[in-house]
Amino acid sequence: MEDFMFPNLRYSIKKKYPSTISDDGWGMDNTHVMILFNLLLAYPYKKVLEVGSHRGFSTTAFIEAINMGCTFEVHLCDTNFEKSVYDICEGYKQISLHNMRSVDYLATAEHIDFALLDGSHIAEDVENEFEYLSMNDIQSVLLHDTCTQTLPQNKDKPWFDGPLFLKNKLMASPNWLCVEDAFPRKGELTERGLFFATQNISIYNKANKIFKTFKPD
Ligand SMILES: C[S@@+](CC[C@H](N)C(=O)[O-])C[C@H]1O[C@@H](n2cnc3c(N)ncnc32)[C@H](O)[C@@H]1O
Question: Which one of 121, 131, 176, 195 has the fewest CB atoms closer than 10 angstroms to its CB?
């Protein structure tokens, strides 16, 4: 761990988890994974979920949170986990992998406190994921790619709008407190958007600090 303190804790994915890195454009950006890492440390969650692990780039934040002492159960759900995910999760008894569609997993999953949604971006799928999570009183959700569709470079490209739809729905609700990072950063694609929403005011206050800390100068 480098010399950083909460809400600005960091680790090197490049040094610790090189097998999770790819240039296929599917992984979240380093800055957004560090925001996720700090969010996981901001509250004593009991059960957390990642939908969409791919090679495990964002999954590293859950593992590092466990290494920092978090005792939550981690559930990973993907229809096609890459081998690197199995490798980095090996030996962690509190991590479970669910190789199936998110809605099939969520249909029988019980209460989850925190969910990162970065699997299917199709509106109907994201909507269904949120419906199931809501039925079990989800308190905090983190959505990736909430701005991708609206970027000028994607103007005439087809893009699924699930994350944007859910973001708009949460922002329109008085029950959810929201914060987003979509700043452009050199060498990253953080303008794609990372959006956090919670129903808990104390989590929101901490999340706000985290997002502010990672704001570019
Ligand atoms: C954008 S990638 C996730 C990237 C990952 N969060 C990271 O930062 O490296 C999306 C992943 O979601 C998975 N996926 C797509 N549709 C899904 C669904 N309906 N249920 C579960 N996983 C799904 C894909 O197999 C893929 O691995």
Answer: 131
Q: Ligand 1, residue 116: give the atom nearest the CA.
A: 6
Confirm or reject: Cβ of 162 under 6 Å from ligand 1.
no
Q: Checking phi first, is residue 137 left (phi over 0); if not, alpha (psi -120 to 50) or beta?
A: left
Strands (DSSP E) along the chain, which ranges? Answer: 47-51, 73-78, 95-99, 114-117, 140-144, 177-181, 194-198
Annotated domain spans of the chain: 31-213
Identity of the residue numbered 116: L
Q: What is the residue-wise DSSP string for 17-34?
A: -GGG--SSS-SPPHHHHH
CA distance 26 to 29: 9
- pLDDT, tens digit (0-9, with 9 covering 90-100), for 36-69: 999 999 999 999 999 999 999 999 999 999 999 9
| 174-204: pLDDT as tens digits | 999 999 999 999 999 999 999 999 999 999 9
Question: For the stretch 80-89, what's the b/e string if a residue is b when 16 or more beta carbons lie within 10 angstroms of its beta carbon?
Answer: ebbebbeebb
Instruction: Report how far ligand 1's centroid is from the alpha carbon of 5 (Å).
Output: 30
Kindly state if the Cβ of 99 falls inside 6 Å of ligand 1. no
pTM of the predicted protein model: 0.97
Nearest-CA residue for atom 18 of ligand 1: 101
> Which CATH number fits the domain 31-213, given the four candidates 3.90.110.10, 2.60.120.10, 3.40.50.150, 3.90.930.12?
3.40.50.150
Structure-token pair, residue 150: 């609206």
Q: Which atom number of ligand 1 is nearest to the Cα of residue 20?
A: 9
